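User: Can you predict the 3D structure of Ankyrin repeat domain-containing protein 54? Sequence below.
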Amino acid sequence: NYGADPNKRDVIYNTPLHLAACIHNFSIISMLINAKADVSCLDMHGRNPLQLASSKLEILQKGWRQGAIEMVKLREEVQQVVDLLLSILMRGIEEKWKNFSLM
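Assistant: Sure. Here are the predicted C-alpha cells for Ankyrin repeat domain-containing protein 54:
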C-alpha cells in the first residue's frame, strides 16, 4: 500500500517473505503474498520461503522432541531420588517404632 517492494532482497538474498516464513508470521506472509511477493525466489543457499519455513519447523520439532526426552529422563531421575528418600524415611520410622513400647 505504501509503495515498498515486496521482493526487495537483503545481502544474503532473503526477501521479506523469507523472513516472515522464518518466524511463521502468517499475517505478514498473507500481506506479502497479496502484494505479489515472489513465492519461488531463492536465497543465497537456494531455498525458497516455503523450504525455509519447513526447515525451521523441523528444527523446532526435533528440539521439542529432544527436550521432551530430556524432561522424561529428568522426571525419572527425580522419581528415583524421591523413592530413595521415601524408603530411607520409612526405614527410619520403622526403626523408631521397633523400640517404642506403650508400657
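The domain at 16-98 is CATH 1.25.40.20 (Serine Threonine Protein Phosphatase 5, Tetratricopeptide repeat). The chain has one domain: 16-98.
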